[in-house]
Amino acid sequence: MPSIGARPMEYYGPSIPYLKETEIKGRFIVIEGPDASGRSTQIAMVTTKLEADGHAVLNTGLRRSELIGEGILEAKRNFILGKRTLSLFYAADFADQLENKIIPALHAGYVVLADRYIYTLMARDAVRGIRRIWSHNLFGFAIKPDLVFYLDVDAGELVHRVFQKNSSLDYYESGADLGLSEDMLDSFLIYQGMLAKEFHRMQRRYDIVPINGNRSIVEVNSDLQDKIDKFLNMDVLISK
Amino acid sequence: MKSSSSPRASQHSKKLEVKGKLIVVEGIDGTGKSTQIRLLGKWLRSKQLPVFMTEWNSSEMVKEITSKGKKKGRLTPTTFSLLHATDFADRYERNIFPLLRAGYIVLADRYVYTAYARDVVRGCSPKWVCKVYDFAIKPDVVFYFRVPVDVAIERILVGRPKLKYYEAGMDLNLSNDQYDSYRIFQSRIIEQYESMVKPEGFVVIDGTSGIEEQQQLVRKTIMKLLPHQEEEQKQLRLQQQQFERQNKVVVTADN
Fold it and tell me: Do residues B214 and B243 share a domain?
């Protein structure tokens, strides 16, 4: 597989000083979208296709860090966390993954497929009343992905998918901590609507490509795969 | 390392009214700052003032998780920084800010300046650290305890000769010897503190002078903050007395 040359990392804020010398060779693709938007299905399909094409692929996601991933779940069960505390907690967990998984894989030339990235964290913060500029600065140490997709699914459609999957609504995914409505379904709809709005706001600033996620799995996949292939082939052309 | 011009602590925690006072002590380990803030607390309490003490890295919730990561020795400067910021945020959201709003005198044994000094020495971007902590309110007074590194180290090593991995700055690969490493690490932290003295308006206390002498200086500085506090307390007491008197009237009328 032709790989393109090593290059320095690009950050959203000031670069991480102690990683100055680290260069990356791989490609970094992020798929964002609410729960039950079909993210994991799409990531599995894209992974299979990319591996078949000869790419080395690494899957990663939020809340999978060995450092504190469990700690967050535990803390959510046992304590009422302040919004900023929770935000920093997630940021620490994310930083662990970025430095211990994502960057090493990119350095080694992998295509890294991330199941959500800082945008989800920033959207959650924003709807909880944290200033957007603060979150943006907080995640200044995050490297810029090559491609970011957002699976855009209508809230009404999402509800159906969530119920098909779990038969109940998750407390946090419904934004129940925000006290939006006494009715869980209302709360879910309002909360998901707020998150979607944040994503639309972020679209321009962070070059997020929206993908209509209301369609069938196959349709969404061909759209997604098409865009990814085009991007990767462009690389090949450039490297030639 | 150079200090950045952006403020390390600022006031934009919304425009909520803050009635209390925030007093901070800073300095490396072994400068005697904890002793001084304890004595200050006792004095303020003896004046019937509402006092709350908070210590760096002491949130129960965060402590457990931090120590797990520390044991694994896999913390990078960024994760290390963010875990401490989480601890700070938890104490800030739960205690420091609400208590300040309620009129407490909050005594903080270390504040955002500790994070700044340590994180920058560990290799984080100074600009980034400033921004992470810019939700924190600016203290009314910051006492900086200045002690030569050797004196401080001697004090620390008398009590507990075994240093912890991160405490000694072993993650920085400064030296294979943990005492050497500790010394270099602490010296660099001092450099960071010194760079903040002027821009942040630290009140410098000579930590090598006598404990009582230092305490006198500390109290003299705090005294200037208090008249307003005492006035408010007096008014509160008056209001209470008035309220009690009125209640008594109601009670007698019922009889």
Answer: no
Which residue(s) pair with B52 in the sheet? Answer: B106
Chain segment B141-152, per-residue pLDDT in tens: 999 999 999 999
Contact status of A137 with chain B (Cβ, < 8 Å):
yes
Min Cα separation A10/chain B (Å): 15
Predicted TM-score (pTM) of this structure:
0.87
Residue B3: inside a domain, yes or no?
Answer: no
pLDDT of residue B233: 61
Task: Say whether pLDDT at B255 is over 60.
Answer: no
Give the DSSP letter string of A158-225: HHHHHHHHHSS--TTTTTGGGT--SSHHHHHHHHHHHHHHHHHHHHHHTTEEEEETTS-HHHHHHHHH
Q: Which of A16, A74, A134 sits opposite B125 (nearest CB)?
A: A16
* Contact between B20 and B99 (Cβ < 8 Å): yes
Q: Smallest CA–CA separation between A16 and chain B, in Å?
A: 6
**A78 contacts in chain B (CB < 8 Å):** 61
CA–CA separation, A185 and A169 (whole Å): 8
Do B88 and B135 sit in the same domain of this protein? Answer: yes
The dotted CATH code for A7-156+206-239 is 3.40.50.300
Residue B12, in any domain of the structure? no
Residue numbers of the domain that contains B241 = 230-255
Condensed to tens digits (0 to 9), the pLDDT of residues A5-63 reads: 789 999 999 999 999 999 999 999 999 999 899 999 999 999 999 999 999 999 998 86
Q: Mind telling me how many Å the CA of B131 is from chain A's nearest CA?
A: 6
The set of residues, in sequence order, having a beta carbon less than 8 Å from that of A151 and lying 6+ positions away, is A31, A32, A33, A34, A37, A38, A39, A42, A211, A213, A220
Do B208 and B253 sit in the same domain of this protein? no
Q: Give Cβ neighbours of residue B66 (< 8 Å, ≥ 6 apart).
A: B57, B83, B84, B87
Cα separation, B115 vs B105, whole angstroms: 22
Contacts of B135 in chain A (CB under 8 A): 84, 134
| Together in a domain, B167 and B244 | no
User: Are B145 and B250 in a shared domain?
Assistant: no
B11 located within any domain: no
Tell me, yes or no, whether B167 and B234 share the same domain: no
Q: Do both B98 and B208 map to the same domain?
A: yes
Q: Looking at the domain assignment, is residue B13 inside a domain?
A: no
